[in-house]
Amino acid sequence: MNSVERAFIARSQFILKQKVQWFPGHMRKGIKDIGRTLKNTDLILEVHDARIPFSGRNLNLLSRIASVKPILLLMNKSDLINNKDKCRIEEELFARMGSNNVPIKHIFWMNSLHSNPIYGGYDSKLMTTIISSIEKIANVGSNNNLFQTDDHYNLLVMGIPNVGKSTVINRLRNVFLQKSGKATKIGSLAGVTRSVLEKIKICDNPKKIYLYDTPGILEPSFHRLETNADIEAMMRCAVCGNISEKVLEAELTADYLLYWMNKMANYQYVEWFGMDKPTNDITELLTYGAIKFNFFEKRRSMTTGETNIVPQLSSVADKFVYAFRDGSFGPILLDEDHLRMTK
Ligand SMILES: Nc1nc2c(ncn2[C@@H]2O[C@H](COP(=O)(O)OP(=O)(O)OP(=O)(O)O)[C@@H](O)[C@H]2O)c(=O)[nH]1
What range(s) does the CP-type G domain occupy (predicted)? Predict the structure, then answer.
């Protein structure tokens, strides 16, 4: 960090300048479908994004389900965080179980995108570990009545939109049944899966395992946004792509990312945008970006009728957020402050 960066004072709070309302019909239907599918389910496999282990988990819905079905937590996209953070995250997640009423039986880490181990990618031991955890749960006497049959296991895959539920399912199926192709649809935008899908077989041996894919259901507090913590959690989800880009303007999501990077004294964006010092001003940042990436468009003025060349700020905002999502700024744990709070 240079002396200018050391002297920089970051914004102390993120102010949400847009009203947010989003609870699409398919999510309401999804909750009903999940309720109906529960009776045929042995366990819940909750999939979440490793960059936001504490933000966005739908604890409300999970706590209701946890009273009837055991929950396994799969932290996906773990290629986008540092390995050294995993233990601290696990400790904190287990520490919170008492207060949030969502007891987790096991936590698994997965990078479902790359099978090559040099990317820290899919480890064939993972499935064996998942199976042995399921068997351990099934073999506890008090859980006997939770499992439908001894012959196979049915898991319901749950999670907020775009955490990689479908990718996880396809990956597990590809590796363990050597089936190529996709059993369930994948998309880089939130909200691809819209209803509980057919049962998908992912494993034959030593036991048959079936998964139900479900639509991503967002944390309901995002519809109320009563506290700063709710706003920060929602914005972190937006940065990770869990909230439809139709709901939050690209500039707003980019503004939160800028606020967060400054707060964490992470100034990697300065060079990326071709600037000479950090800024708190999103318009300044995006204007630099428009010049660097040559993002301009012709726009006709409604009042004078003249055509002007103006920067395409929303395209630059998208580029910034996508670069973060791709890992261009290195591994980033957006919820790092949740770990610090407990130190
Ligand atoms: N870096 C990285 N990206 C991933 C990983 N898993 C999934 N993705 C990407 O995340 C995006 C969302 O994946 P999906 O599998 O469609 O997510 P989903 O949770 O099923 O999404 P919905 O249907 O919207 O609920 C896609 O662009 C995937 O390529 C991972 O382990 N690492």
Answer: 28-220
